[in-house]
Structure formats: structure tokens, C-alpha cells
Design brief:
Helix content is about 25%, strand content about 25%. The protein has helices spanning about 40-45, 95-100, 150-155, 160-170, 185-195, 210-220, 230-235, 255, 280-285, 300-310, 325-335; strands at about 1-5, 15-20, 30-40, 65-70, 85, 90, 110-115, 135, 140-145, 180, 200-205, 220-225, 240-245, 260-265, 290, 315-320, 340-345. Strand 13 (about 240-245), helix 8 (about 255) and strand 14 form a beta-alpha-beta unit. By secondary structure, it is an alpha/beta fold. It folds into 2 domains: about 1-160 and about 295-345, Quinone Oxidoreductase, Chain A, domain 1; about 160-290, NAD(P)-binding Rossmann-like Domain (Rossmann fold), CATH 3.40.50. The longest helix has 14 residues, at about 300-310. The chain has 11 helices and 17 strands. Strands 3, 4, 5, 8, 9, 16 and 17 form a 7-stranded mixed beta sheet that branches. A 6-stranded parallel beta sheet has the order 12-11-10-13-14-15, covered by helices on one side. It has a two-stranded antiparallel ribbon with strand order 1-2. Bound molecules: NADP nicotinamide-adenine-dinucleotide phosphate (NAP) and zinc ion. The site of NADP nicotinamide-adenine-dinucleotide phosphate has 32 residues, from helix 1, helix 4 and helix 5. NADP nicotinamide-adenine-dinucleotide phosphate binds near residues 187 and 335.
């Protein structure tokens, strides 16, 4: 079936309308009519081939929320009409030690991304959620239990939510801990909400003075404008954990120096250009760690969605028609988004 979508034909071309092919519903497949799709900075990095390796045409979008319109004969978990989501993955090998542990994002054979991943479907690579519908293997479909009226604001949980939830859980963030969230964008604003809900003392770091008040409202106990050296110095050697979501190259020492002994700075931002090498002295003298984390597994993504539904957590969004996508990318590049653009899929 052909459906309407928006995608790019080259790194230096704007997104444009296109018709894309979706496979017939197989025995294990779920067909989803997309209601909303969040706009992740990874979409922009990929469309503009900032990481290299983008295959065109490129239809991005991995924060998908919508409703089931058909299920295959072998599908028991979903039925027509269910409210569901799809995140960054649509397949993995299902038999390596990572998949066995429910950590499909670390699949030994490489997971299949929701876009720009290898597939048998036309045109040979996956096409994402900037489209009217998608067909996805049931194992990679998530149940959404938030009220229907919140669906647009739930979409960003599928990437921004899980990418911050997973490291906060892995490093056991909770009451009694001082936790930093760096960069108040799509990921960062979810990181603040989630770390706050997990009971930590949350400090938000931003380069934007204009986000100070918002950060408090999102759940930060303290807000630091990271360009202010005096404000930064007050927090030296005091953090258990810092989650860094910044999408651009910057000096990491400014944050490792804020960790206590044995503290960890975990990077989830993937800038186009590398960060300057961190100071080894800063690491060895306090046994500090710099780590990385990639989205989250399917089981944990479901756990995150249920946690958010239970705690009334959704994303702060600005809804856009698909025709405004290039403008949205330009604003995201400048850090001018409060705090996630979401495409209204009725506008295709
Ligand atoms: P975003 O909405 O653009 O937010 C990034 C934030 O970083 C900005 O709002 C800004 O916050 C800060 N920032 C941007 N440029 C900066 C600069 N030059 N100097 C200092 N701070 C800057 O992006 P996002 O969607 O949250 O994604 C963030 C990064 O995570 C991207 O690189 C994305 O590809 C990556 N990502 C990784 C994973 C994973 O699995 N690891 C998953 C999804 C996304 P302030 O205004 O507060 O400073
Ligand atoms: Zn993403």
C-alpha cells in the first residue's frame, strides 16, 4: 500500500511530500494509523547526514503514536482500535545475549532502526513516522494507557522519554541523590521530569537563561546557567550522576568536575563533531566515569510508558503541521523549542 509521507532526497534538500510503500500486514504485524509523530534531534542529524551513512530517500520519525487498524493472524497482544506507540526500533535478531536480556537496542547483530535501517521492504531501508501509517512487527509495538487527549504529548516519550528513563534507572537514580540534567531540549526536559518523579534532587543545566523558570516548573530543584563559571563552581564535587543530552560538541570537564568521587557523567547526546578530549586528571583523582547510553529495550520502554501514565507525565509540546517541518528543524538547531515539536499527522 502507498501512503503519504514527508522525506528528504538529499542531505542539502528540504523535506518534501512523497508517497511511500508499506508492506502488507504479515502474520506478526500490526498496522498503525499514525496520529502524531515527535521530532527528535536525531531526525535532523540523519536527514542532513550529520553522522554520515544516511540512505535517501530518508523519511525520519521514531516517536510514533497512533491507533491499530489491522493485525496479522498471529497477533494476540493487540486489536483494531488499540492506542499504541512505536519508538526507535522495529526489529532485532531476537536470539543474541542482548535480545535475550530484553536489551534489543544493544542487539549483537544490530537492531533495525525505525528509519534508515536495512529491511526487505521497498526501497530496502526503513522509512519512519513522518507518514500516515506504518506496519511494524508486534514485538516492537508498545501499549499506551495515557488518556486519549494526551496522545500528542505522549509521542515524544517513545524516544526522548525512554532515552532518559533508561540511564536514570540503570544508574539507580532515586531519593537522596543529587542528579544533573544537561541541556533542556526534547530529551533534557523529559530527564528533569523523570528524575524528579524518581525522587532525586534535580539540578538542570542550560545555556539558555530564558529556560530558567521553565526548568523549575518541569521539576528542577535548582537551575544553573552553564555559561556562568561562578554558578558552576558552587556545585563542584557534589553530583552522584549527571545525564548530558546536549546535541553539540562542548567541554565535558565542566561537568565531570561537578561529580563526587565515583560519580558518573552519562552521555546520550550524539553531536556531529566530537567533544574535546576530557581531562584524565579529573577522572582518575576521583574515580569518576564517563559513560554512554542508547535508547532502551522494548520491555523497559513499556515500563517507562506505564510509569509516565501512573505519574501523569507527558512531554511539553508544540504541535506543527508537517508542512512546517523545515522551519521546526531550523528552530531546533538553535535550541528554540519548548520542548518538543510534534507533527499532527492529520496534515499529510
Ligand atoms: P534538542 O531538543 O535539540 O535539545 C538539545 C539541547 O542541548 C538544546 O535544547 C540546548 O539546551 C542544548 N544545546 C544545543 N546546542 C548546544 C550548544 N551548542 N551548546 C550547549 N548546549 C546546546 O535535541 P534532543 O532531541 O533532545 O536530542 C539531544 C541529542 O541526543 C541529539 O544529539 C540526539 O541525536 C541525541 N539522541 C540520542 C539518543 C540515544 O539513544 N543516546 C536518543 C535520542 C536522541 P539548552 O538551551 O538548555 O542549553
Ligand atoms: Zn530520537
Amino acid at each position: 500500500m502507498f501512503v503519504r509521507a514527508f522525506g528528504a532526497n538529499a542531505a542539502d534538500k528540504p523535506l518534501e511530500p512523497m508517497n511511500i510503500f508499506r508492506r502488507d500486514v504479515g502474520p506478526d504485524d500490526v498496522e498503525i494509523k499514525i496520529a502524531y509523530c515527535g521530532v527528535c534531534h536525531s531526525d535532523l542529524h540523519t536527514v542532513r547526514s550529520e553522522w554520515g551513512g544516511t540512505i535517501y530517500p530518508c523519511v525520519p520519525g521514531h516517536e510514533i503514536a497512533g491507533h491499530v487498524t489491522a493485525v496479522g493472524s498471529g497477533v494476540t497482544k493487540f486489536k483494531i482500535g488499540d492506542t499504541v506507540g512505536v519508538g526507535c526500533m522495529v526489529d532485532s535478531c531476537q536470539h543474541c545475549y542482548a535480545c535475550d536480556d530484553g536489551l534489543e537496542q544493544y542487539c549483537e547483530h544490530g537492531f533495525t532502526g525505525t528509519y534508515n535501517g536495512a529491511t526487505a521492504d521497498e526501497p530496502g531501508h526503513t522509512l519512519g513516522g513522518y507518514a500516515q501509517s506504518i506496519v511494524v512487527k508486534d514485538k516492537f509495538v508498545l501499549k499506551i494507557s495515557h488518556p486519549e487527549a494526551q496522545l500528542a504529548a505522549v509521542a515524544p516519550l517513545l524516544c526522548a522519554g525512554i532515552t532518559t528513563y533508561s540511564p536514570l534507572r540503570h544508574w539507580r537514580v532515586g531519593p537522596g541523590q543529587k542528579v544533573g540534567i544537561v541541556g533542556i531540549g526534547g530529551l533534557g526536559h523529559m530527564g528533569i521530569k523523570l528524575a524528579h518523579a524518581m525522587g532525586a534532587h534535580v539540578v538542570a543545566f542550560t545555556t539558555s537563561e530564558s529556560k530558567r523558570q521553565d526548568a523549575h516548573e518541569l521539576g528542577a530543584d535548582e537551575v544553573v546557567v552553564s555559561k556562568d563559571a561562578d554558578e558552576m563552581a558552587k556545585h563542584a564535587n557534589s553530583f552522584d550522576f549527571i545525564l548530558n543530552t546536549v546535541a553539540a560538541s562542548h567541554n565535558l570537564d565542566a561537568f565531570t568536575n561537578l561529580l563526587k568521587r565515583d560519580g558518573t557523567l552519562t552521555l546520550v547526546g550524539v553531536p556531529e563533531h566530537p567533544h574535546p578530549s576530557p581531562s584524565i586528571f579529573s577522572l582518575i583523582f576521583k574515580r569518576r566515569s564517563i559513560a554512554g547510553s542508547l535508547i532502551g529495550g522494548i520491555t523497559e520502554t513499556q515500563e517507562m510508558l506505564d510509569f509516565c501514565a501512573e505519574h501523569g507525565i507527558v512531554s511539553e509540546i508544540e504541535m506543527i503541521p508537517i508542512q512546517k517541518i523545515d522551519e521546526a528543524y531550523d528552530r531546533m538547531q538553535k535550541g528554540d523549542v519548548k520542548y518538543r515539536f510534534v507533527i499532527d499527522s492529520a496534515t499529510f
